[in-house]
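Sample pair:
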Amino acid sequence: MSQRTERRGIHVDQSELLCKKGCGYYGNAAWQGLCSKCWREEYQRARQRQIQEDWALAEKLQREEEAAYASSQGSHPLPQAQSTPPHASLAPFSKFEEKKSNEKTRKVTTVKKFFIPSSRMTSKKAPIERENRGLRDWREIFSPSWEIGSPTEETQESKTPSPSITRQSSMETDRVSKDFVDFLKNLRPGREIHKQCRAFIETMFNKKDLGADELSECVQDFYQNLSDRLLSHFKGSSESVEKVMDQVEKYIMTRLYKNVFCPETTDDEKKDLATQNRIRALHWVTIEMLCVSMDEEIPEVADNVVKAITDVIEMDSKRVPRDKLACITRCSKHIFSAIRITKNEPASADDFLPALIYIVLKANPPRLQSNIQYITRFCNPSRLMTGEDGYYFTNLCCAVAFIEKLDAQSLNLSPEEFERYMSGQASPRRPDSDGSWPLGGSPSGAPTDPGAADPVLAQLRQNLEVLSSLSSRQEKLTEDARSLQSELLSWEESVRREVQDILERYPLEIRPPPLAAIDADNVGDERLPPPLTPQVFAG
C-alpha cells in the first residue's frame, strides 16, 4: 500500500510528440512516430529496397532456371541459337521486368498526366472531340453547381443505399462544388486547377483495387505537385498557396469521401469496434484516477466539458479532413478553458493530456480509429506537421494509444482492483459488497471527505436527499387532496339536503298575473287632453 501513496499521474514529455528524426515537426503513432514528410521518405526508401530485392530474387531465379535448362540439354548439345530460344528463357524475366517497371512507375505516371498540357497528350479521339472537351471544361468553370458533376462522379454517388443520405450528400457536394468554382473565378489559373482536380477525381474513382496506403500516396502526391506549381505561380507566397490548397482539399475529399473513408481493404472498422469496446470497459475510470485538473462542480467547467464532448463526437459527421481537425481543435480549446477556470491560472501541457483522455473516455466518439486514419492519410501534410491543429491531433493520437495500453499502474491501482473493475465485480461508483458506500475517492481506501474526494458521490447524495424531500411532500399533497375531495362531497350532500327541506317547507305556487288596462300603468294621465270625439256631418 505504501507504494501507491503518491499518485504518479499521466505525463508525456513534449519532445515525445515530435518526429523521431529530429526534424522539429509533430510525429504520429500511425507513422511510427515520424512526421508525414519523414514517413513518406522512409516509405519511398523501403519501397525501393523492396523493388531491388525483388529484382535480385528474379535474377537469381532466372539464373537457376537457365542452369537447370542447360543441364537438361547437356546430353543433346545443340547450337546456342537452336538449344535456347530467346523467347523461352527471356519471356518469364521480361514479364517480371515489365510488371516491376509498371509497379515502379505507376505512381509517377498517375500524377504526371494531370499536369501534362493538352498539346502534349496522346489522345485517341478525334481533334474535334478534343476541342469540344476543352470548350466544355471552359464552360464548367463558370457553370452552376448542378451542372458541374461529371458522369463518373454522379454514377459513384448514386450507389448509396439510403435515399435520404443520397440527397444530403448530393446537396453538400453541390454546395462545395459551387463554392469551389466561385473561389476559382478570382484566380488566373482557376480553370487549370479545376480541370486538374476533376481529372484527378475521375481517375481516383477508377482505382477501386488500390489499398488505403496507395490511395493516400496518390492524394499526397497530387497535393505536393499542385502545391509546387502554385508556389511558382504565386512567386513564393505560402499564404496564397495554403488558401488554394485548403479549397482543393475540401473539394476533392468531399467528392472522394465515400470511396476513401474506411475502405474495405483495411481493418479500420475492426479497430473502431475494438476501441469502442475498450472505452466501454473503462467506463468506471474516474476523474481522480487520471489526475485531471477539472472541477465539474463549477457550472462554467461543466459547460466546457459538455462542449468538448460534443465537438469530439461531431468529428465523425464531417467529410473534409480539415473540418475534422477543426472539431479536435475546438474540443481541445474547451478543455484548456475548463482547466484554466478550475486552477485560476493558464493550463499547462501536462494538464491537457489527462483531461483529453478523460473527455475521450466520456464521449466514446464513433469510428474514432477510422477518423484518425482518414485525417492521417488524406489531410494536407502541412497541417499535421506544424501549428495548433497538428499539436492537438498528435495529443489525440497519444490519448487513444494510452487508452489502448491503460493498465493498473497507469491509474495507480493494484492489479487486483484493476481486474475487479474491468470484470464488473466492483466499481468506485457503486456500493461495495457489504452494502456500505465508498466514502473516499482514493484508490487506497483511505477515508476522506466525500464532497472533496468524490464530487460525484456528493452530488448523488444531495440528489437523493432532494428526492426524499420531494417524495414526502408529494405524499402530504396527495393526502390533502383526498381530504379536500371528501369535504367537497360532504358539502355537496349537505347543500342538497338543505335545498330539499326548504322546498318541502315552502312549496312553490305559481299565480296568474292580474288583468289590467293597457294604460293602467300610465302616470299623470289627467293632464292629457280628452280624446277626439267623432262627429257626423249631414250632407
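Residues 1-8, 77-91, 110-161, 431-453 have pLDDT under 50 and may be disordered.
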